[in-house]
Amino acid sequence: MAYSAFDPPKSILARIWGAIDSTRRFFFNAIFLVIAVAIIVALLSPSGVKVQEKTALVLNLDGRIVEQRSGGAREKLMGSLGGDDDGGQVQLRDIVTVLDAAAKDPKIERILLQLDQFPGAGLSSLREVGAAITRFRASGKQVFAWAGNYDQASYYLAAHADEVYMHPMGLLMMQGYGRYRNYYKEALDRVGVSANVIRSGKYKNFGEPYFTTAPSKETMESDKYLYDGLWATFTGDVEKVRKFEAGAVNKSINEVVANLKATGGDAAKMALNSKLVTALKTRDELRAMLIEKGAEDKEKKTFRQVSMSAYLSTVEARTSGDAIGVVVAEGEISDGVEPPGKIGGRSTADLIRKAREDEKIKAILLRVNSPGGSAYGSELIRRELELTRKAGKPVVVSMGNVAASGGYWISMAADEVIADAATITGSIGVFGMLPTGEKTMEKLSVYTGGYHTTWLGSAMYDPRRALDPRMAELVKLSIDHIYTDFTTKAAAARKTTPDKIDEIAQGRVWTGAQAKDRGLIDRTGSFADAVKAATTRAKLDDGARLAYIEAERSKFETFLERFATQAVTDYATGVMRQFDTTLGTSILPKSVAAEAQRDLTWLAEIAERGKTGFPFAAVAHCLCGKD
Fold it and tell me: Active-site residue numbers?
């Protein structure tokens, strides 16, 4: 039989396929070999790091400061191999541990804060790190800070150093606090979508961007009071540690145009003239100075130094004896099970129960950094804390950057609630949202119809059809009931009446200092203050062991955690990247496109939940973030 040019013999096809298959097997075997070798090297390598005399501890803060790293070990490894990352994460507890340990270590002579790549953090977290830097300086050791450019967050940390250096071509920018939101009502109207937001609390503004074109009077009032309070805390701290006169920071901002003209447009010289920085230095000049002040590492041709991660591995943690159990509640709150960095009603409640049933855990310290989420998930967590107190174990809540709405709900079953002065808290309110796209269907000439045996079935929420007024009334009654439950529980926790709580609730957010004045917390203070409170209530000695109660991981997962240092981006981030690709970053700045996609994706997820059989979810969430 003859073969045409378009009908190759089977033997040729087999050889081609064999070559492809061999290449595939070689590729995956090579990957497996690399991973296996890495595991063997990691397991056989000595775990300790030898710190020499006259060493400088370098804190290169190139990741977001978080209470708890997000994602599981497998996800982080896959994200690292796939090139996905969220800019890195640095645990607040690790920074504080390293600074406090270095203050007592005679081999650590000074600290270099390298802030060139610092992506920022919430003010409460910055204040915790700033306080740790101050404690380090109190030991008689020096702290230097350097960056090519400083933004508001990085300068806050730098201000706590003895000397602040910046590159001669650098820029120092402080602009205050505030936020501008996107408002989608007209855009949704154009495509035929109705948000149908139902809420309890005139300040409960999380759903506001979906049903109006601008912030309400109540939102503007609340935002002004909140942001002015945060800014007063920020400027007060900076002026205190830099020994500036009161009002110096605002003065420098108000006069920035005149000051920049005076230097001929040289922003670095303007910062130097304003005494915001000590001196202007290039990287090589900084290196030479640190060699002169400390010791030279001749092999690496730089100053003798140890990184934060390397030094952290030398700090021994106590693993036996009675302890304070720390449960971290970071992220948005859902009903079920969530990985680290998010709060699952079931999974976090399970951690609290685990701590309660552990005989070595004498008190529970709940560290909250959450804008809220599911009211049901929040109640699951609050109930477990209530049971813990009934079992005779003290409960202390320490609020981080944000403990608002659902984040406040889970804090209502504590013996003592301590927040930072800059914590964003309160937001006692509830809302529901039932987006419908009946007009979108009409635009597409698509219609729905059918039969149901009861009015409730026919009126049940369906995103394809207009919201039935009877269903809206049912949801409103449920939302109002949950709000009443929220205020009643808050009143019992704060030993006051629901009416008095209602006066300061209505979904309004407060700083920690403002919340203290209104009786929503017991006192302002740091995480260390909360540890002391839990220690005292548990009748333990000072310096009691802290045991972080987290989901158990296998040794292999622990290795993966160390092997993959970058966290995987979540589903929303993937959608945002698709949004950037489809609409193009040339049309909108990336930050604007990301916010729009995040907001609209959230709206779509709300609609999707309506298909699960339950008509709506009561949400206790604030219009605020963790950072």
Answer: 204, 405
